[in-house]
Amino acid sequence: MRLSNVLEELKRSNLSFKNELNSEKFYESLHRLSDFRGYFKDCISLDELPYGTRIKIICAKVLKYLETINKKSYNQDDPYDVCLLLNYWVYSRLFDILQYKGEHYVHIAYGKLQSKWTDFLDDKSYHKLCKPITNMVNHNDWRKRKELYEYYVDYSPMKKIVDQYKQRCNEFYIYVENKAPLYKHFEELCPDPNPNKCPEFYNDCIKYNPEKVLSTFKCQQDIMNKRKADERSVAQRGNIHSGREPISEDSSVNMLTVGASQNLSGKSQTADNVGNILLGVVATSMTSGALYRFTPIGNMLRNIFGWSNNMRNMHGGDNGLFDYAPESFNLYSGGAVEHYIGYHQA
């Protein structure tokens, strides 16, 4: 996984309004599902897969959700498709668990889980309930699709809140602004009607393109004024430095670091500088080992830099304590139950 994915994870987890997003509320409800062990019998063959215990838990949670929540709340007129979020949750959870074995294992596990899911719906005659999306494995940009649909689900209710509480406008403005590269990605693909290239839901998302909506934010002018002031301040500092004696290479590096940190309130705040500073915090925090072992950020960093999880291999097999990887974009929920169930005695 690329470093950019780590930074996206960090930025999203740092949002003050993260728990108010509809997509996050949905994922949290799946994490908090309990009393799902009765569905293990429908998922028992998944035990044969690598990390099969954890995959069986995902399967059982899906079946529990379908029978106890989706069955009661299904409505064709809902403003967004919960089924699509459910499929993205399943696929991202499998990817978190199996990505270090190889994406091929993710595809195998997803296919086997789909079979259990479909059989359950057929046996119960739940023909109108959420079905698995069989072609998701064909989407190499599934993370971007997931992010785009989450943004579509989350935008409208959050914009209504921001319009009422102006003090929250700046942060949401930056959040929306950061979706511009996502739209650029799909604008290049979506003249093609092939759903493997352009998501079927893309047309619904066009109205929330940052280029269309940022001008409706009441705080936009204040943000633009602040950025211009910061740019002038940076230019003035540059003029002062240009009139001084040449400085050493080491001093240049130090000055660049200071300048970057001082410029966070300006335009650079929207992307890389914030990510770089957060990544520095992560690197420092990892000395304690907690972030490295127990969060998806730690997992992603291990994947980028080739760090191995020695704790996982201490006794061999599937150790539910040290291998657990929470669902992307939700760093702190759902762990206790899966740690307990996923543990294998040495």
From TrEMBL:
One Pfam family here: Plasmodium_Vir
Tell me the superkingdom of the source.
Answer: Eukaryota
Protein's UniProt name: VIR protein
